[in-house]
Amino acid sequence: MIQIQEVARQVYDLATSNDPLAPLIKEALDVIDEGLDACGEDRVSISFNGGKDCTVLLHLFAGALGKRRSASEYTSPIPAIYIAVPSSFPVLEDFIEDAVKDYNLDLFYCRPPQEDSIETVVTPAASSITKGRDYIHPLPGPRSVGKAKGGEGMRQALEMYKAQLPHINGILIGTRRTDPHGDRISFRCPTDEGWPRFDRINPIINWSYADVWTFLRQLNIPYCKLYDEGYTSLGSTYNTFPNPALLVTSKQSANLDIQPLPSASSIISPTTALTTVMSNTHATPQLDALSPTEVLSTYISSTHTKSGAELNRTINQSSEFYSPSQYHPAYMLKEDHLERAGRGLNIPSVTL
């Protein structure tokens, strides 16, 4: 478990230093302090889903509380809410569990029904062209999953939270300006009409993608391992993939002794496809009994019998398609506008 007073010393020292991040850290801590003063120190929670942004915010929140609390209060748990997406990554769930222990979180788990998904789950397009650069993503085309209703699941989750913990009236959120609809928010704003009443507190809205990673790495703060595998924005396994902008190129792989994924535009002959299938499935007596055509046909048929959701999830979680060594880590992404290039299309409007 972290020492909350040590975190307080760490972040407040950095906020008053000459470090380039100091103004942003001070701003975020001031917003947190103002929210705690306005709502009540024991009435503010943090929305935590294991992503990079809320991991930054959690560390700052712990620091702010550490400065305010007396020695006898250091062991008091930090209120938090986790609103899960459909089919979350197991490694992300593990990281959240670790954070609960490390930061002593009193975490309220909320999993809305599948049909009331928090976000529209759509797979990325097979290829994306962004600002003149082609990033080939060898995946199926966009495919919706289930009966996603955008913000309805979020609203229901907050209703459950308010019913369970009615004294909580402020929630810290790790939204930034570059997030979908992030340009419409302020440091503090109430929830919309018809939603459970909370103050939305957004301390890091002015942080960039690069600022987030500088903070995490400079302070050696643990983060979800998926980011080291090329993921830059996390959601459901159905609509979250390694960022194609971080794909290791042939030249890079020669230096790293890594074999890159084949380009989606590559022309593969039936013979090459069959060879790949055979090598990946490790030929067995059952396969030997079939002709090459039957083997390939069986493989294709078994793939097409899966539902779209099952196929997307299988592709996403299969090391045959994604090896951690084939993508650069998230902190190496230089173009902030490509942060969500590995996420699904048609991101819905979600309000609190």
How do the strands line up in the largest sheet?
3-2-1-6-8-7
CATH fold description of the largest domain: Rossmann fold
What proportion of the residues is helical, as a percent range? 25-40%
Helix vs. strand class: alpha/beta
Which range does the strand content fall in?
5-15%
The largest pleated sheet is described as: 6 strands, mixed
Counting H and I runs of at least 4 residues, what is the number of helices? 11
The named CATH superfamily of the largest domain: HUPs
Rg for CA atoms:
23 Å
Poorly predicted tracts of residues = 115-149, 254-285, 295-309, 318-325, 345-352
Provide the CATH architecture of the largest domain.
3-Layer(aba) Sandwich
| Total strands | 8
N-to-C span: 31 Å
Let me know the average pLDDT: 74
> What count of structural domains?
2
Enzyme class: transferase
Catalytic activity: FMN + ATP + H(+) = FAD + diphosphate
Pathway: Cofactor biosynthesis; FAD biosynthesis; FAD from FMN: step 1/1
EC number: 2.7.7.2
Describe the structure.
- This protein is an alpha/beta fold and 352 residues long.
- The protein has two domains: 4-139 and 148-224, HUPs (Rossmann fold, 3-Layer(aba) Sandwich), CATH 3.40.50; 262-321, no CATH class.
- It is 37% helix and 9% strand.
- The chain has eleven helices and eight strands.
- It has a six-stranded mixed sheet.
- Helix 4 (90-103) links the parallel strand 2 and strand 3 (105-110).
- Helix 3 (52-68) packs across helix 6 and helix 8 packs across helix 10 (292-304).
- The radius of gyration is 23 Å and the shape is globular.
- The two termini are 31 Å apart.
